[in-house]
Amino acid sequence: VHMVQSRRWLGSILRGRYNLLRTLQVIALAGLVACFVGQVASSVVLSKYAFGFLPALPGAGWARRVHMVCSYWMFVLAFAHVGLHARIPRKMAPVQRWAIRIVAAIIACYGIYSFVKLGMLPYLIGQVQFAAADYSAPLALSFARYASIGALVAIVFHFIREALLAFVRQG
User: Fold this and answer.
1) Which of 4, 81, 119, 123 could tie 72 with a disulfide, CB 3.0–4.6 Å?
2) pLDDT tens across 40-96, in order?
């Protein structure tokens, strides 16, 4: 549905002028597409059930690593994409705008804590080949941790977007 809604934007990728914001948006989208292709390719190599009719494919070692790296980068890039396109309505009371900023700051701080607590960096740089789940933590807490990391990424990229837009307006 999202791709259908974005068909005009996708159709104009090769046309028009590129500023820093548009370049960053296309890089994030290209990264998402590359990770999606990596996920699918590694899934075919790793799956013994869904693709059981295929002959055994060599390369499970690289496929496992590609699968893990792509899945974590897809998570990050999807939220970067959200942040690069998210807008806070201009017609909002200053109190509401500050309330949103304070809540976003609290969520971002928890996202930083969760990023460190869950050890996301080794997953992103390919040092981990297997996902490790903390079964002692309640499911709601695990969900909140990953959601806060996603919100952190979206918030950071939203502010990058706002900074780039301010830079473009000045120049």
Assistant:
1) 123
2) 988 888 887 667 777 777 777 788 889 999 999 999 999 999 999 988 888 889 899
Cβ-contact 108, 152 below 8 angstroms: yes
Nearest to 125 by CA among 70, 77, 87: 70
Task: Mark residue 38 as left, alpha or beta (left: phi above 0; alpha: psi -120 to 50; beta: remaining).
Answer: alpha
Per-position DSSP letters for 4-54, written without gaps between them: HHTHHHHHTTTSS---HHHHHHHHHHHHHHHHHHHHHHHHHHH-SSTTTTS
The two structure tokens encoding residue 148: 């806060």
Contacts of 30 (CB under 8 A, 6+ apart): none
Q: How much is the pTM?
A: 0.86
* Joined tokens for residue 73: 């980068």
Question: From CA 67, how far away is CA 46, in angstroms rounded?
Answer: 9
